[in-house]
Amino acid sequence: MSFGYSVGDIIATSTLCWTVYRACREATGNYKDVTTELESLHINLKNLEDEIKNPKSLLNRRGEIMQSEFNHILENVQKSLKELEQMVVKYRSLATMERKTWDRMRFGLKDLNTIRQKLTYHTAQIKLFLGHLMVDSLGRIESLLEDFVQEIRNGKRAPTLLSIDHGGDEADMGWKQLESDLSESGIPSKDIERHRHEIEEYLVQL
Hints:
The protein is mostly helical. The protein is built from ten helices and no strands. α1 runs parallel beside α5, α3 packs parallel to α7 and α5 (63-95) packs antiparallel against α7 (112-153). The longest helix is centred in the middle third of the chain and has 42 residues, at 112-153. The radius of gyration is 23 Å and the shape is elongated. The two termini are 36 Å apart.
């Protein structure tokens, strides 16, 4: 990586999230209810992991700008997950002791709502972070499209990509050429496909 974190950091956090998810799923009562938040968090951590593993992603190419925000999010997620993990361990230990059922139920509720709110917040933070990446990616694609069209007008590029909205084989050839050009310019393939509709609309306007 070109900046201050490794793939191992996000993989470790994602693994911890899944471990806590399984522990809560196997627990009783309110701990089982928190699995929805954990599952959603895990999905978004995996999405973040995909971005980090992709050397062409904006996260890697603009790593120095985003490093602080990423580290802040990851540290907070890890802290909340470890806190919840400790709570589940303690709750399970109580279940093996001769305690009144009411005591166990009361302990199960302790601070759990606060943790659930934190997990929801962390998920929202990651979604927003990834959303910023998508917006930045689309903005860069639009800038490249403007450059491509200008090169076509100046006779420096074949007009193949302008046939995208014509339909049929000609459109398919135009799209394949555009995918290749954007990829060579550092745009990840999944971002190109994700924004295909916006790309086609933007080309019509140019």
